[in-house]
Structures are given as C-alpha cells and as structure tokens.
C-alpha cells in the first residue's frame, strides 16, 4: 500500500491543482491524505488520480479560515473507504480536524486510516532551536516550563489534540495516522506518540534524500530569516519537518521519501513537500 500525505496550502490551492496532481500521479498512490483542502478541491484531486472515494468533514460543520471564505480541512482519498468519521479537534482554529476511514487491508481485514491537521506554531522551525522545547523533549522539564508563550500554548494544545486522536485507534486493528502534525522529529509531541506505541515510518524505512518537508528554497514558505533571530551565524534559513506518517506496527514501512520539488520552470505545488511511504501489512491481523 502506497500512502501519500500532503498539506496542499489553503491559499490559492486551485491555481496549483495541476502541479499537485502531476506530482501525485507520478508516484501512483493507493491512498492520499490531504490537509488544508476542501470538499471540492479533494474531489477534484480524487478524480484526477482515479480514486473513487473521498472522506471530508460535513459541510455544515466547516468554518472558513478567519477573514476569508476559504475552507481548510483534511481529507482521505482512496478507491474504497468505509466507516468514515470526522472529529473537530479542540483549539488550533478551523483547520484542525481528524478524518478517519477504513480501507481494505490484508486477508479481508481493514486498515484504519487517519488524516490529521494539528495546531500550528508561528515560525514552527523555532522548535528545532528553542532550548526549553528541546529540554522538555528530553524529559528534563515539563512543557509548562517553556518560556515562550506562543510555543508553550501550542504544545499544550497539540498534546490535548493527540489524546483525542490516539483514542480513535485501537491496538487490535492495524492503523495509520498521517498529516501535518506541526511538531518536529524527537520533539515533545513526537516522543509522546512514540511512547503510546506508534511507529514513525520516517524512522523505520529507508529514506532516499532528506526528511524535511518545509524547505527554505520554496517561495511559498512565508517565513523569512527575520523570524529566526537565533539561527547560527551564516545559516540564512531552516529546512525542517512537520509532516509524518505513524502506524500501529501491524506491518512495516518499506521506504519513505518526499515529493513536490518541481522541475525547472514548473510551479511549486504547496509550501509543504508531500511524504510518500510504501507499507507491507501482515497477512494475519492481531
């Protein structure tokens, strides 16, 4: 099973639809997990990829982004989806949802899939530099001791959201959770998920190339060096990772790689790179 997760960037996403679909079609995914999409945008991507099913939140529960009429939600695209469920996560604004559905798995069973968008931190790459965040990730202090208020509050929100998310997946059924997690590798929230039994596909499978999904060379990334006054001398900007795929350990991630760096003269599909992972699920489920 090849699974791609990709934050499509809510602003001007229809203008970049061709670029997004071109990159997705090139890797021929079985399942696509989008974030910052809409019911119409997700349906258009599914049609281009010949994926028949789309799971999105119900329209009457979706609120537009502040100051706009644009919808930003996660979605799941596949040939077949069963038992769909949409959960609005507390805090973090209108984009923060968990969408789940079952896709056919090995031996007649099913794999529970989740597409998630967690609460963001302004200039999220600061998590790779903030000494309090890094100390809390190592277990040397609690996240409540992070001195920077915006970072401290966003961590607390994400941990609360992850408690809701993790409760949706049982240990008896194979599951896969992916999306724009808005935390960094080996960060507080990342370690929290690993302690709960989740397996990080980035760490398990071979990774051709970099694992970074936010790259400074991308002109759609809104951050500048001014957002990072603590950068080491001579480093003009950061490349870092916010997008992940986690699974239950009922199978194995064979390989993971990023997609979305355009050929010269082509448009960037999003401010994020997509993450593609190949899985082999065990033929007998626990």
From TrEMBL:
<dbReference type="GO" id="GO:0005737">
    <property type="term" value="C:cytoplasm"/>
</dbReference>
<dbReference type="GO" id="GO:0003697">
    <property type="term" value="F:single-stranded DNA binding"/>
</dbReference>
<protein>
    <submittedName>
        <fullName>Endonuclease/exonuclease/phosphatase family metal-dependent hydrolase</fullName>
    </submittedName>
</protein>
<dbReference type="GO" id="GO:0070260">
    <property type="term" value="F:5'-tyrosyl-DNA phosphodiesterase activity"/>
</dbReference>
<dbReference type="InterPro" id="IPR005135">
    <property type="entry name" value="Endo/exonuclease/phosphatase"/>
</dbReference>
<dbReference type="InterPro" id="IPR051547">
    <property type="entry name" value="TDP2-like"/>
</dbReference>
<keyword id="KW-0460">Magnesium</keyword>
<dbReference type="GO" id="GO:0004519">
    <property type="term" value="F:endonuclease activity"/>
</dbReference>
<keyword id="KW-0255">Endonuclease</keyword>
<dbReference type="GO" id="GO:0006302">
    <property type="term" value="P:double-strand break repair"/>
</dbReference>
<feature type="domain" description="Endonuclease/exonuclease/phosphatase">
    <location>
        <begin position="4"/>
        <end position="272"/>
    </location>
</feature>
<keyword id="KW-0269">Exonuclease</keyword>
<keyword id="KW-0234">DNA repair</keyword>
<keyword id="KW-0378">Hydrolase</keyword>
<keyword id="KW-0227">DNA damage</keyword>
<keyword id="KW-0540">Nuclease</keyword>
<dbReference type="Pfam" id="PF03372">
    <property type="entry name" value="Exo_endo_phos"/>
</dbReference>
<keyword id="KW-0479">Metal-binding</keyword>
<dbReference type="InterPro" id="IPR036691">
    <property type="entry name" value="Endo/exonu/phosph_ase_sf"/>
</dbReference>
<dbReference type="GO" id="GO:0004527">
    <property type="term" value="F:exonuclease activity"/>
</dbReference>
<dbReference type="GO" id="GO:0046872">
    <property type="term" value="F:metal ion binding"/>
</dbReference>
